[in-house]
Amino acid sequence: MKIDPDNPADLSAQIAAAIRDAIISGGLIVDERLPSEAELAEQFDVSRPTVREALKRLAAQSLIRTQRGATGGAFVNRLSFEAAQPQQITTSTLLLSMNAVSFETACEARYALERACAPLAATRRTPDHLATMRAEIHRQSQPGLTDEAFCASDVAFHRALVDGAGNPVLSYQLAGAVEAMQPLMNMITFTARDRARIIALHEGIADAIEAQDAAATASALTALEQETQTLAHSVFAARAARR
Amino acid sequence: MKIDPDNPADLSAQIAAAIRDAIISGGLIVDERLPSEAELAEQFDVSRPTVREALKRLAAQSLIRTQRGATGGAFVNRLSFEAAQPQQITTSTLLLSMNAVSFETACEARYALERACAPLAATRRTPDHLATMRAEIHRQSQPGLTDEAFCASDVAFHRALVDGAGNPVLSYQLAGAVEAMQPLMNMITFTARDRARIIALHEGIADAIEAQDAAATASALTALEQETQTLAHSVFAARAARR
DNA sequence: AAACATTAAATGTAAGACATATGAAAATCG
DNA sequence: CGATTTTCATATGTCTTACATTTAATGTTT
Fold it and tell me: From the record, what ranges are coiled-coil (chains A, B) (predicted)?
């Protein structure tokens, strides 16, 4: 871990990489305290600011946490799914917005992934998940709802579906795909009739999940994907024509 | 974006968050140059090292890149799928190793996600993808192969399958799930008979993809999942008994 | 013995300096 | 005049030193 070529560029990046590798390879255990900044500076033969820049890089990835005071220092973080999700969502969102990913492509990916959760969710969903889904459906049918709030509720509904699979790995991976769609969905204006159709499809999904019918859940999701795609298509076509 | 409460703690984190929000909200465009470190220090009323720590945090997330020299500075990065994948893989790997995720759970998630790609891959796969899959199968059947190389080839095979779906969003999301399994797979020793069974299943998958048969692809994947799970189960049971 | 003050160790921040890379302008030469 | 070289300004990369702040352990006093 003390490797550091005499290439005098990107020292902080090199140090960050060295520490990161040590964490990944198991050389540093969870909750283990790193040497103090001064000690690290001496070990790597650099100044303290350089060490600090390296540590901040690791902190940005939630690989370490720092604590001030007498017994303080930098500690290896237990990377939790909860902590990793916001970052995953941020990255996914930026990937979509910066790479001109079409609504169609993102939507296709999202529903393909959700269908992967369907059989598991149908088997394992708890009453809690069902209650969340029903509550979100109820919220979506309220009249005064803004388009943004409607989309947010849509996301919550789908996350409950995904969480119903009872697999944290799936929930983590899907969080990015589901949440990153929200900005794209927010570009759509939903008429009352649109909302009614979507809510009906949501009810179909909830019913299928409740009945623990995997096949019905999958086909209901496909129907919702179809509806979303055609809706988006018409909205974007109208917007393009208006120009 | 110049908001900064007089809370005198985590200044660099606050500054990083402010710039990050500006990027996400579109206040800073791709390839746009940020103010110089000295200017930022003045704007936020902090010292240059503090600004630098903030910038390093953003660089760790590939949100910005820096360039030295006269026309240098920090530029907003176009976050590409290629750049985001390694980070996604690192995070996924650490999540599995640090949270005592069972082989069963990770394997279930991986194959559920891969089955999501199956219909699309069966439809859209190019000869290139097929060739890669066949080549990896061939490699796996070579005699002198180490277990690690066998697992690496397995990952390459599955990534070709995922990429065959022709959806960059899917490829990105799946990369984490597929690659993160490798350390877990490396804990298994594959006998010659194990390998033969896996290779046969791989051939079944490749055949189904070549025939553009979505249903056959999905069921072949399910068979492979079964095989992997029972294999892992017996290996771990034997290891537990030996103690 | 309990409450309080002191101290030490660590991170957080600041300020100034120098090194280095790099593009552009200026000077020089053919 | 044009091409090449030199110079220079600007920005990041790094080092040094210093001080502020937080926090727990230690010591002291009542």
Answer: none
Tell me the per-residue pLDDT of B83-95, one tens digit each, with 9 for 90 and over: 899 999 999 999 9
Distance in angstroms (rounded) separating the CA atoms of residues B152 and B200: 17
Same domain, B189 and B127: yes
Give A68-75 contacts, CB < 8 A, sequence gap 24+. A73/A33, A73/A34, A73/A35, A73/A36, A74/A33, A74/A34, A74/A37, A75/A31, A75/A32, A75/A33, A75/A34
Q: Is residue B101 part of a domain?
A: yes
Task: State the CATH number of the domain containing residue B206.
Answer: 1.20.120.530
Mean pLDDT by 10 residues, chain A (243 residues): 68 96 94 96 95 97 94 94 91 92 93 94 95 96 92 95 95 91 89 93 96 95 95 87 74
Global model pTM greater than 0.85? yes
Domain that holds residue A92: 81-242
Beta bridge partners of A33: A75
Are residues B156 and B98 located together in one domain of the fold?
yes
Map tokens 């269908």 to a residue. A115
Give me the number of domains chain A comprises.
2
Summarize pLDDT for B57-69 with one digit per residue, the tens: 999 999 999 999 9
Please indicate if any CB of chain B lies within 8 Å of the CB of A221. no
Nucleic strand D near CB of residue B36 (< 7 Å): yes
- Interhelix angle A192-210/A214-242, rounded to 10 degrees, is 160
- C-alpha A54/C-alpha A38 separation (Å) is 13
Of A residues 54-83, those with CB within 7 angstroms of nucleic strand D are: 67-72
In a domain, B159, yes or no: yes
Residue A49 and residue A20 share a domain: yes
CB contact under 8 Å between A101 and B49, yes or no, is no
Q: Are residues B133 and B49 in the same domain?
A: no
Instruction: Tell whether B162 lies on the interface with A, counting CB pairs under 8 A.
Output: no
Domain presence at residue B5:
no
Determine which of B14, B29, B94, B97 to mutate to test the interface with A (most A C-beta atoms within 10 Å). Answer: B94
Structure confidence by residue, pLDDT tens digits, A164-173: 999 999 999 9
